[in-house]
Amino acid sequence: MKMPTPFAQLTSLRFTALALTPIAAVWVLCAPANAQVPGEGQQTQKAAAQQQREQLLKEHEAERAEIVRQRALIEQQHVAEDKLCYQKFSVEGCLADAREKARLRDVPLRARELELNDIERKERATTKLKDIEDKKAKNAAVPMKAQKRDDAGKNPPSPTGVGAKPPVDEQAVQAQRQSEAQQRASKQADYQRRHDQSRAHADQGREEREAKATAAREAKLKEAADHKARALKQAQERGKTSAPLPAPAP
Hints:
Elements: H1 6-34, H2 40-85, H3 91-154, H4 170-241
Helix pairs in contact: 1-2, 1-3, 2-3, 2-4
């Protein structure tokens, strides 16, 4: 069985992430409307939306890791091609061609990286908008809750009888909601931190590899120039010390 190439794996991850993106966006945008649905259904929908977002983040992390791996392979191939260039007559032209090939190989990786950045930026904006809508809905519900408490104080319901329900502990519910919000914020911050570290590590590695490759190219060019100068000097010295030709016979 033929194993899929790394680029094919990256493409598969890309299609999966693109398929999950609209689903997660729909869940996030529908969250304010779903907030009006009381009971267990609301919690189920929120949990499903959170699960979709976490799955999308995992897909993006996998894609970014694959991009880093692909770039490392491109850099290795670039270094190998540079070494071959020093065995040719036109060294500079060969090195320029190798750089252009490496740049073209990185074009689709860079394009996908920009797409991921845009998707994550929109996701953060959508999440922020949802938080604002939730806050507005919460603030609008405060006077209504106060009115209900006043009405309940004037006409307290009887806790006994058929169908009677125990009173709801509003403070406990609010504390639970705050705890869940803090957990979501912590997960998002942790993902952003790991994402930033991964990008910083990739950038640092690429800069180090480019610096090493540049130093190696300069050393090769200097060595070639020195070799050429020595060869020219030796040729000149041989010309000076060569014996004169014999006189032609009469």
